[in-house]
């Protein structure tokens, strides 16, 4: 895994030695960033189910202002810290060692509003849907913000919610990426 573009282009990420983290492929990552590139520069980003931090680190490389990395796995937290340190980006990243729902509630209480929220949950466990429902009822997403969820192609993701709607879905083999925004952007 590597950083595709920006000031850290070509940087090889530290990854786990086992297979408990399923990384986003470079092809999928490049496609996602081509779609959302206008929301990254000087933006606030939240990387939920962060794993190695690949998506958030890519955002920092492309000039995001700050990234909140959220994961409940201690090994993932250690890897994210190592990657941030090695890339000299510790000041622009905040690492949250917690489950995603607790982190969503905590960030909402702190009045964080994200321009981009990435989610790459374990496939077919309903975790992406649960997190999306919590975000939908919170003020965590900025009015013109975007949510990007990587999921298994067979996994049903909602088209419409209370405040959010899916405006795009792209399939890459067995992986799909769903894009959400608020129904009425301000």
TrEMBL record:
Pfam families: Cons_hypoth95. Transmembrane segments: none annotated. It comes from the Bacteria. Keywords: Methyltransferase, Transferase. One of its GO terms (biological process) is rRNA methylation. GO terms for molecular function: methyltransferase activity; nucleic acid binding. This is 16S rRNA (Guanine(966)-N(2))-methyltransferase RsmD.
